## 1
Amino acid sequence: MNTTIRLGGITANSVVDGPGLRTVVFLQGCPRRCPGCQNPELLDAGGGREATLEEVLQEIQGTLSPITRGITFSGGDPLMQPEALKELITRLREAFPRLDVWVFTGSRYEEVQHLPLLDQIDVLVDGPFEQDKKDLDLAFRGSANQRLIDVPKSRKTGRVVEWQPGGA
């Protein structure tokens, strides 16, 4: 399968996009246009570049070290490309099973919980950025309305379970 994805960029060794040392894959496109958006250059769904999943996997592999804890997908909104993202995460899990997977989205969990790709995600950081709720003291998110959702536990219990350090 020669699936492509709209890529904004890849950053190695982040410590602000989830616990531990992480590779962050920035995907293009977001319909929300939240005032104060952290990544306005990623809003345009036609921006960035089109890359095959194989190219993205090779780029990710080049960023990994023995102490890399996980991969974070940010944007834009990665859930705008759900099929390609699901395939990419599936391949990542096969190639690097020790890494956890975090995904940021402007959607609420309740709006996207039906998406099959959530079966591949450890933590979903949900909710739009709200400038009036901006809080620089929050870990791994920009505004107080956003939640860190432990997806496997939420799917198992049928209710939202927030991620706790030491978890996924």
## 2
Amino acid sequence: MKPTTINTLRTGASAVCTSAALLFTPMLSGVAMAQDNPQVGSPSLSAVDQKFVEVATQSSSTEIDTAKLALKQSSDKDVKSFARHMIVDHTKLTVQLKAAAPKGVKVPKDNTDPAVIQALQGLKGKAFDEAYIKQVGIEGHQKAVAAFREEANTGNNADLKKAAQKALPTIEGHLKMAQDLAAKKGVAQ
């Protein structure tokens, strides 16, 4: 080969290497940053937002699972109607929460409170109805309303805050339904 051909090949190879280095430098520095700072590339939630995700998922999971239990263990048509309503609404709320959560944030699928399930499992008839209305309908929704209000007022993640604001009237409506059901059935509040 002629010396000019070799020089041309060297110059071309050098240009390719330089171009490749320029292309991959941002990627490599991003990898280095991710290794130095584990938060890069993975979303983190504030304590308020994280608490909301945990409470909201546990509330919805518990509502759905105890409502299914109510359909089996209650003989009261009003309690069963309330339970069916809870299954439909809390299933929708769970989907909305998952959609609002930042990408990469794990939203628990089944986060049911085992203590509530255990308290209700051995009960049937009127005893079940009273416990279900009081523990799940009223107390559970009071906790949920507080969590959704806190997120709506002080949440840091805009999407979660918006989801809480949108869902709050539904949760408040559930509490009102439970209170009305308790009054109708003579369950102490």
